[in-house]
Amino acid sequence: MDEELSWQAVQERDASRDGDFYYGVLTTGVYCRPSCPSRRPLRKNVRFYATPAAAEADGLRACKRCRPLENRADRRTVVRIEQLCRYIEAHAQDTLPLEALAQRVHLSPFHLQRQFKAVTGVSPKQYVDACRLRALRQGLRGGSSVTRAIHDAGFGSASRVYERAATRLGMTPRQYRAGGAGVAISWAVSRTPLGLLMMGASDRGLCFVQFGDSEAALQQQLRSEYPEAVLEPMGDAQRAPFQDWMRALAAHIEGQPPARQLPLDLRGTAFQMKVWAYLQQIPNGELRSYTEVAEAIGSPRAVRAVASACAANRVALLVPCHRVIRGDGSLGGYKWGLERKRTLIDRERAAKAGD
Ligand SMILES: [Zn+2]
Description:
Bound molecules: zinc ion
Order of helices and strands: HEEEHEHHHHHHHEEEHEHHEHHEH
Number of domains: 3
CATH architecture of the largest domain: Orthogonal Bundle
CATH superfamily of the largest domain: Winged helix-like DNA-binding domain superfamily/Winged helix DNA-binding domain
Helix content: 40-55%
Oligomer: single chain
């Protein structure tokens, strides 16, 4: 919330901002809408809140003049919606259609949408998704197989998780950055048509997919990319999903469609995350130049930074940095050797031509 703009709206009694935020006056213990007709408080006594619930949690009560709860959600509705939140948390693994949720609180779906958002700041669907992602993380941490954890958490299919993975599951660059402090990564090595491949997974998904010449070299690489993480060989509980993932990647290397359903745990700067997200959208069998990628992500002058982000990729194949080449058609670089890059490009092209 931009406090400067909010304060300006309060001073102007800007009714168009009503519902966007509330302001509380610490000296009177009351919170108001921006448009409240009461006398303007002193700036130093004012605090801003995104929702009435947040203001109430801070011990403030609704103003009797501007009635911040009225027309949006009265007190009883706030309580009902809070109860609905508890219900969603306990039943996140079930299907929760909006109509059914609305019936539980005796509101129309339309009013539930509006009032849920007014009270919590998010839509019911966003709230359900957040609960499911939390359950998924817990399931993965508890050692369930990924497929199992995805279904137990209430997601109908792995692809729905994948859609969110880039933005929700993996997007904690500020919390983690590189290094992986406090993260446990289990790893396994397998032979593929392009040489030894190591996969490393955190509780969120794959964070390391790389080729190497020997297991020792791969372990060293993993250690250098996640110096702070706890590394351990994959345990029995994870063996089955790992084998599934390995099979999917081996098939991809042979030219099959890419294994899109695998959960990823990407960690990087905001810019790197942007580049990697774009790379995942380049269709199988197509190529882009570094310049095209820079333009596509809205940073046309950051061509070199795009190349660096490709070089910093830790998840081969799934973040297909091999699909980016120089504008003159030459291959440019590849972290795992130009021979592998050429092979991957050729196989994906051949597979596309065969479609
Ligand atoms: Zn007021």
